[in-house]
């Protein structure tokens, strides 16, 4: 039985600190793979469209089989960090009972080409999560082969979501979102879906004391070329994980801890319980994601001195850019107008003062802007300048 307080209190002792920030590639994980103990069975599953290795790791000897893959989208790395945290956790003596009850097959980075250049798409500019049936890409074929050979009882599809998402119609960021994917256009509540929902409600229960009202439910629109939908339709309960934004945590170091907790809670639940799909109804108590956030909102701004009685809000999103093997966050204006129904992860009240670009241009949409002037007082919009 999982001891959640122990897991969290000891987390820093098994956290894979060699993996940090947002840029995670094969070159970052391969030294860690090489240092794993003999209980981890490693394999080269194939190569990507650009010829990069796709690694597989199997651990555990139990009868419950779970297939997990991460970084299907190369710029969604938080879940990969959490998986390596779990690898270290599995080296601890108190993990023996769990690993005797389950067997995990894990693909830490399915899309190494996208990871290398920090993009959602693979080396041929294909979204692998829209290639489940077509199998046009080598990475898609690798995942399908792993699925066919391993014959999992459950699948975990690990992703990352943008900072725009709220947990329902609230001012709470969706730190983690889950989904039991649909199997058909009708979004029928099949037994397979209900089993996924049962696992999700267990994770939600484990997370709520630490992330109250900060768990969301992803949209369940059906697309049979999405991997989760496709595997679900084959009768394998599949859970989508979306690692989101914890306040002031743009490198997602706090989020990774709670992804690790969600993962170990789900693995523990599957390993020591019979998942029937009966206990699924509280899944629908998790609020569906809203899109109610901007990274920054500047409120009550006088933007155009020629219209001294017109005040606007300015919505800014960070664009993630790979520069010298580091992800930088470039502020970009995405909306000018009334943002009364939205929330900012950072809110700046201009108090009806003049707000301008540093070169005194009128601020408008699509401006990339690191600083603003509020009545000639300089204010940084950069992430590191606004974290406490």
Q: CATH homologous superfamily name of the largest domain? A: Zn peptidases
CATH architecture of the largest domain: 3-Layer(aba) Sandwich
Total number of beta strands: 15
Give me the Rg, rounded.
22 Å
* Weakly predicted, low-confidence segments: none
Beta-strand content? 15-25%
Do you know the CATH topology of the largest domain? Aminopeptidase
**For the largest beta sheet, what order do the strands appear in spatially?**
1-2-4-3-5-8-6-7
The CATH C-level name of the largest domain is Alpha Beta
Main sheet summary: 8 strands, mixed
For the record, give the distance between the C-alpha atoms at the N and C termini, rounded to a whole number: 37 Å
User: Shape, please?
Assistant: globular
> Can you give the helix content as a percent range?
25-40%
Quick check: average pLDDT? 97
Provide a count of the helices.
Answer: 10
**Structural domain tally:** 2
Give the helices and strands, then pairings.
Blueprint: H1 4-9, H2 11-14, H3 26-34, E1 41-47, E2 53-59, E3 64-69, H4 78-90, H5 96-101, E4 102-107, H6 112-117, H7 138-150, E5 154-160, E6 176-179, H8 191-207, E7 215-217, H9 227-233, E8 238-243, H10 253-272, E9 293-301, E10 312-323, E11 326-337, E12 343-349, E13 355-356, E14 371-374, E15 377-380
């Amino acid at each position: 039985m999982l001891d959640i307080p122990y897991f969290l209190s000891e987390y820093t002792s098994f956290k894979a600190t060699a993996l940090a920030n947002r840029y995670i590639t094969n070159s970052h994980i391969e030294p860690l793979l090489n240092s794993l103990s003999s209980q981890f069975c490693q394999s080269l599953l194939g190569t990507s469209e650009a010829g990069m290795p796709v690694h597989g790791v199997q651990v555990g000897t139990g009868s419950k089989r779970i297939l997990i893959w991460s970084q299907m989208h190369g710029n969604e790395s938080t879940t990969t960090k959490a998986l390596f945290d779990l690898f270290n956790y599995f080296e601890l003596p108190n993990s023996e009972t769990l690993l005797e009850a389950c067997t995990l097959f894990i693909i830490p980075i399915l899309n190494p080409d996208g990871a290398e250049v920090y993009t959602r798409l693979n080396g041929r500019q294909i979204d692998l999560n829209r290639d489940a049936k077509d199998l046009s890409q080598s990475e898609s074929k690798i995942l399908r082969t792993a699925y066919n050979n391993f014959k999992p009882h459950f699948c975990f599809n690990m992703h990352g979501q943008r900072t725009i998402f709220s947990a329902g119609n609230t001012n709470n960021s969706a730190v983690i979102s889950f989904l039991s994917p649909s199997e058909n256009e009708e979004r029928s509540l099949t037994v397979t879906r209900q089993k996924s929902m049962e696992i999700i409600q267990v994770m939600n229960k484990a997370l709520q004391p630490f992330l109250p009202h900060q768990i969301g439910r992803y949209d369940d629109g059906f697309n049979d070329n999405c991997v989760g939908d496709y595997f679900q339709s084959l009768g394998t309960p599949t859970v989508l994980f979306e690692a989101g934004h914890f306040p002031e945590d743009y490198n997602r170091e706090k989020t990774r801890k709670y992804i690790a907790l969600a993962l170990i809670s789900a693995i523990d639940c599957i390993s020591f319980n019979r998942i029937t799909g009966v206990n699924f109804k509280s899944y629908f108590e998790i609020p569906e994601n809203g899109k109610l956030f901007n990274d920054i909102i500047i409120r009550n701004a006088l933007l155009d001195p020629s219209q001294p009685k017109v005040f606007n809000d300015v919505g800014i999103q960070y664009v993630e850019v790979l520069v010298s093997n580091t992800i930088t966050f470039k502020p970009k204006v995405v909306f000018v107008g009334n943002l009364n129904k939205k929330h900012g992860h950072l809110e700046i009240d201009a108090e009806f003062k003049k707000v301008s670009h540093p070169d005194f241009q009128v601020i408008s949409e699509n401006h990339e802007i690191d600083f603003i002037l509020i009545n000639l007082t300089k204010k940084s919009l950069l992430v590191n300048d606004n974290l406490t």
